[in-house]
Design brief:
mainly alpha, about 75% helix
Length: about 450
């Protein structure tokens, strides 16, 4: 029997699952701010041209496409006295926390009227942020080594619970605190206004929290059992590329990622511009988002356990295909769009709550399925390789949504205007996810016979 076959994944306590999942709180806050608010902050607030900001974001996606794969690959390569995953977490977590601070607060150092320097600054720190965000790959690969297959949906639920607590914090911060700061800069006609202390303290706190949570699990989680990967790294890459089902899954995640990235990029702008929501409306929407996500995380997880992963993923796709054209309702003049906003954000929360359960589970399951045939657990490379395809599609999505949102303005109510792209993006996402549905139904396998045993 090989060393890999002797890996014992014992039952774990709820506290261990929660401990392992906690870093998702910090990463969801910082990635959410970078994804939801950075484009608007740099363009509407700091005055950078949208094309340049879009270019930077696309470069960030391409950076993480490479870095997540490399960190997964490299973390498989050597077992240290701290295991395979912990050393990478200890090195990269501080860079992630520091980079979000300088990415969001260039005014601590720069004259914000110098757009050339601002562009270089944004590019450098966005690349560093995305490169260091790859710490999540060795972290996620750890799941396959620490938890047996039947516990992974529960772990994923805990992770997504932290994700969406973080997203709730991020949404409130982005919509209320950063939104007010952006409005103040626009009203002043000058980005070099004093940075509110609430923003500085909050961003620094988020950065420190991200570092601290990763360091806590690095020192508190048990080191995974030692097992040897005798095959060479290049051979491992060849093995996973020849894994037909895995490559089909990767392509499915990439195609659907094009749609999901458009949703995450446009949803806040839809509330702000198309629905003209105010501060109170944002607070109500953020609470609804949190409640809907928590409820649907539980419901989707229970359905996975009853009906299997593939069937429920198909349900998630169909739900999104049916729901997303709701963006067209922004064309109907209303005295208040609050009810539409609540329905919109509730549906988004339910759909994304289902989708985000899957990648964490699938990568660990595929790695274990490969282990049963090859005798080696290559969790890092299986967790990291999909980022190449996913982030290329997401980079394309960043350019695409930027083009859509550059369409001419319309004014259904006659009192405010917004890009026509904000009502069209929903049906476009539906088309993308309908393709994902049929592709997944025909080609992808997500449930394995050994799980039943």
């Amino acid at each position: 029997m090989s060393e890999s076959e002797q890996i014992i994944r014992g039952q774990t306590s709820s506290s261990t699952k929660v401990l392992f999942s906690a870093p998702r709180l910090g990463t969801s806050i910082v990635l959410g701010i970078e994804g939801w608010a950075m484009f608007t902050l740099y363009t509407s607030g700091y005055g950078l041209r949208p094309f340049l900001a879009g270019f930077v974001i696309a470069m960030g996606y391409l950076t993480i496409a490479l870095s997540q794969f490399l960190l997964g690959w490299l973390s498989d390569a050597k077992y240290t006295k701290w295991g395979r995953r912990k050393p990478w977490i200890i090195v990269f977590a501080p860079l992630l926390g520091i980079s979000i601070i300088f990415l969001i607060l260039p005014g601590l150092v720069l004259d914000l009227n110098d757009t050339g320097t601002l562009f270089i600054w944004m590019l450098i720190w966005e690349i560093l942020f995305r490169a260091s965000y790859a710490v999540t790959t060795p972290y996620q690969a750890w799941m396959a080594e620490e938890f047996p297959v039947e516990e992974r949906p529960k772990v994923s639920q805990f992770q997504n619970t932290f994700n969406y607590i973080g997203n709730g914090i991020m949404a409130l911060f982005s919509m209320i605190v950063l939104g007010s700061y952006i409005t103040a800069m626009k009203d002043a006609g000058n980005p070099n206004i004093p940075i509110p202390s609430t923003i500085t303290i909050s961003i620094v706190t988020f950065g420190i929290l991200t570092i601290a949570l990763f360091y806590i699990i690095a020192f508190k989680m048990p080191t995974e059992p030692k097992y040897e990967i005798k095959s060479k790294l290049i051979d491992n890459l060849k093995t996973i590329v020849k894994n037909k089902n895995f490559m089909l899954i990767v392509l499915m995640i990439g195609i659907s990622g094009l749609g999901w990235s458009m949703v995450s990029t446009a949803m806040l702008k839809y509330l702000v511009d198309a629905l003209d929501m105010g501060t109170t409306d944002y607070i109500i929407s953020a609470v609804v988002l949190l409640l809907s996500i928590f409820i649907f995380l539980y419901l989707w997880r229970r359905l996975i356990q009853k009906k299997g992963k593939k069937q429920i993923l198909l349900y998630v796709f169909i739900a999104a295909v049916i729901f997303m054209p709701i963006s067209l309702l922004g064309l109907i003049p209303m005295s208040s769009y609050l009810i539409l906003g609540i329905i919109f954000i509730m549906g988004i929360g339910g759909i994304l709550g289902g989708w985000f359960l899957f990648p964490y589970i699938v990568y660990a399951d595929i790695a274990e399925d490969d282990e049963k045939s090859t005798g080696e657990l290559k969790a890092g490379i299986y967790a990291g390789f999909p980022s190449i395809i996913l982030n290329i599609f997401q980079a394309a999505g960043a350019f695409f949504i930027g083009s859509i949102l550059s369409l001419p303005d319309i004014s259904p109510t006659g009192t405010f205007s917004y890009s026509m792209g904000l009502v069209l993006f929903g049906p476009i996402v539906s088309v993308v996810l309908l393709i994902s549905y049929f592709y997944t139904k025909k080609y992808v396998k997500l449930d394995f016979d050994w799980e039943k045993r």
